[in-house]
What we know:
Layout: H1 3-13, H2 20-32, H3 37-49, H4 53-66, H5 70-86, H6 90-103, H7 108-120, H8 124-138, H9 142-145, H10 148-162
Helix pairs in contact: 2-3, 3-4, 3-5, 4-5, 5-6, 5-7, 6-7, 7-8, 8-10
Amino acid sequence: MTLDHELDRIFTDRDRGNMQPTIDALLLIHASHFDNARVLYEVGGAYDTAGMEETARGFYESALAAGLADDLLRRCYVQYGSTLRTLGEYENSRKVFAAARKKFPESAALRVFEAITLHAAGLPNDAFASLLDVAVDLVHSPDLDRYKSAISGNAAHIRSLDGSEAGS
């Protein structure tokens, strides 16, 4: 069984209510693949799911430094930015999401979790405006398409109420 298949199996078998068996299984793999970006990311995710955000943070940072790419990189950004928010590090979370959106501008997950960070940081108007931007940019339906210009205008107005610079 390849390393990726083993990681997939562990992820599939996890019990979100009891993450310790998953963490234990991943730590065994980590012992022999301590510098593998995906292993680092998966261990971080397991600790994150278990509510151990400070431990997860270190693994996410190591995974990013080890060279994650493509979808794993995008997912790590989502989870790392969210973890920073949970730790109350709103400015660092915002920086992670801003950098991630440059690499993955079409990622709805990044944009939605960034909005959650904006809200947690005390910028509810920016958060709401950002979600309106997601709807305009990524939701395609004849019913909504007709009003995209108006929605964008409302997003700009709502964002201006905070006088902030979050932008879309």
